[in-house]
Amino acid sequence: MTTATAPTRLLEVEHLTMRFGGLVAIDDVSFSANDKEITAIIGPNGAGKTTVFNCLTGFYKPTVGRLTLHHPKGDFLLEQMEGFRIPQKASVARTFQNIRLFPQMTVLENLVVAQHNVLMSASAFSLAGLLGLRRYKDAERESIELARYWLDKVGLLDRADIDAGNLPYGDQRRLEIARAMCTEPVLLCLDEPAAGLNPKESAELNELLLFIRDSHKIGLLLIEHDMSVVMKISDHVIVLDYGCKIADGSPEAVRDDPNVIRAYLGEDEDEELPPEVLADLKIDTPKPQNMPGSE
Amino acid sequence: MSEAQQSIRTETFNIPAALKDAFLTAFVMGALALPLAGFRIGEQGGAFFAEQRMDWVLIAVVAGFIGRFFLSLARVSLAPRIAPPAGAFFGGIGSWLHTNMVLMSGLAIIAAVILPFLPFTDRLILDRAIYMLIYVMLGWGLNIVVGLAGLLDLGYVAFYAVGAYSYALLSTHFELSFWICLPLAGLFAAGFGVILGFPVLRLRGDYLAIVTLGFGEIIRVILLNWYTVTNGPDGISGIARPSLFGLMEFTRNPKEGVVAFHEFFNIPFSGEHRMVFLYFLILALALITNFFTLRMRKLPVGRAWEALREDEIACRSLGINPTNVKLSAFAIGAMFAGFAGSFFATRQGFVSPESFTFIESAIILAIVVLGGMGSQIGVVIASFVLVLGPEFIRELQEYRMLAFGGLMVLIMMWRPRGLLAYRDPTIRLWPVKSKGARK
Ligand SMILES: Nc1ncnc2c1ncn2[C@@H]1O[C@H](COP(=O)(O)OP(=O)(O)OP(=O)(O)O)[C@@H](O)[C@H]1O
Ligand SMILES: [Mg+2]
């Protein structure tokens, strides 16, 4: 299907459903993300965005659904893989909505730990490392070079040796992205990376994400609340609401979609909505079902 | 000192709340004291009678009230004033020790090496030094599990027991020499570490502590009851003493074909030769443990241990297999306990389940926690205080557990990460001196 110029599919999510007991956090969501593109997942609080990430990165086992990653080495069915093998084998990296660094380790150590699997095989499960063999020393030097590269990119080079937990919030966010990039992923999933950043930091973050997309030629999945960020940098937007996909398309198309406007603006708009849409809303609020608007 | 700052609370002393708290405590004290101390059952002429002791109950209630009130007072007004300076003081010592690490550890090792040759060193001092070094080694071993990997293990003594019994059984049944049994004992203990590791992989914190505590007890109860193999509470005696790498023996009348140490060097026989040898043996074993740990810390496995302690979920998101990381920490920690155990068996010449009670686990854990989790020097100092303190001050021995508890509470208040907690980065981008890099 794909021609030379068309973007290649990187990730395909088909009929993803995630239930927690009676709660349906994601209800039959299908979408795809392309390589070398930023795909944004947006939606109001509790829409199920983080849950999609948790399914993709193996923290949750989806109730139903197929998650296919088209890796250069071959296809991976993410829903069947054990959690830690997804970053290890399928090269999917992620960050967390509430930052998860190793606070008592230094900035540099955080980035070196991210290269654990490479270093582990270079050290022959510590043997070469214990004996101080050349092959481990070289691998370690390379890992430091990679860390240095990303530290430079996120502007933390001069603070490489302080504890990650002592960094200001914005720096911690960027360090988490650098750490994820040190695993050399093909798909990077970012959970609200701009949350809590000031406008200047947020603008720098946009630069960084565009740089990652253009220079490292990987796909990015981006959860974001801030519509201005989404409009500026994403190539493709998916909108979730109450676990259902309500829109999917280019940023401009999504911005003008009435479903999206309704989901975001909520009750204030009730009076102005046409009666049949209002009826939909009333049904959907307590009990998410397949919505007609979700293609 | 960030810890010091953290412990400054902005609470003000709330008298009504403290009084209410104290009343409640007094009430609980009364309710407990009434049945426990309120009556004394006596016997007179074959008839029982109950004697009232309401004065005892009253004392308990009043003591509970006053004690609780002053505790609240101390917590709010005294602790914040004392804690930061005390915390900063020990933190200062910790970082001073670590910045002068090479010098200090060099001096300590030299002191340890010449100790047996000092004029005032007698059998007692050597014996105590050996005793302490066993705990130093155990502390360093447990430091891998608790300090680095952050897995709270309350049953560490189980691996020590496995090591000791491995050597005891191998030596008495198969007459294998100490030098063959030492690695075997370490291997067996590491095997048990993996066996314990598997069921507790999913557990964390308190739950992990409870299961490891249970595991320690299981091993002890097995040793106590499996009479045919372990000889039950009577223990195993007649365990072979170590020889000088199979070359010479430290006995007055050696076996056929074996040279005795004193005969070879043509010096008069002295029981101290063996003591000195044992001393150097445990010193070497302990130092191996130490250098191995220090080396491991700078390798991917060691960094993964620390990362696991910091955040297991983040580890998984980076493709680190938490199972392998935990099992390797358990196994390696257990291996050193196994080495220490077989040394213990050869030193004593006798093992029994009595030596492997929970209190041993508690002491080793206390050494690690008190010294500062992850701090190698801290372990030495804590072993000195906790193991030798009660030995030298005999009067303290009865109050040992009380002192432990009190010390632990103080440490948790002042320096929750241990007295000399100080973490040295395993890798640096900039030289230490560069001020720009250490803002
Ligand atoms: N482990 C879980 N157990 C039970 N319910 C869960 C679990 N994880 C998520 N949920 C529920 O699933 C729904 C979606 O949550 P999710 O965290 O994915 O929302 P989100 O879109 O990321 O929201 P936010 O913008 O607030 O981050 C919520 O109702 C949440 O309570
Ligand atoms: Mg979320």
Relevant terms:
heterodimer, A: 295 residues, alpha/beta, Rossmann fold, 2 domains, 6-stranded mixed beta sheet, 4-stranded antiparallel beta sheet, 10 strands, 38% helix, 22% strand, globular, disordered C terminus, B: 439 residues, mainly alpha, ABC transporter involved in vitamin B12 uptake, BtuC, two-stranded antiparallel sheet, 17 helices, 68% helix, disordered N terminus, binds adenosine-5'-triphosphate, binds magnesium ion
Describe the structure concisely:
Chain A is α/β, with parallel strands linked by helices and 295 residues long. Chain A is built from 12 helices and 10 strands.
How do the strands and helices of this protein lay out in sequence?
The complex is a heterodimer of chains A (295) and B (439).
Chain A: E1 9-20, E2 23-34, E3 38-42, H1 49-56, E4 64-71, E5 74-77, H2 85-89, E6 92-94, H3 107-113, H4 116-122, H5 127-131, H6 134-153, H7 169-181, E7 187-191, H8 199-216, E8 219-223, H9 227-233, E9 236-241, E10 244-249, H10 251-255, H11 258-265, H12 275-284
Parallel strand pairs in A: 3-8, 3-9, 6-7, 7-8
Antiparallel strand pairs in A: 1-2, 1-4, 4-5, 9-10
Chain B: H1 2-6, H2 15-37, E1 39-44, E2 47-52, H3 54-99, H4 101-114, H5 123-148, H6 157-174, H7 178-197, H8 205-225, H9 227-230, E3 236-237, E4 248-249, E5 259-260, H10 261-264, H11 272-297, H12 300-310, H13 312-317, H14 322-348, E6 350-351, H15 358-371, H16 376-392, H17 400-414
Residues 49-50, 97 of chain A line the site of magnesium ion (MG).
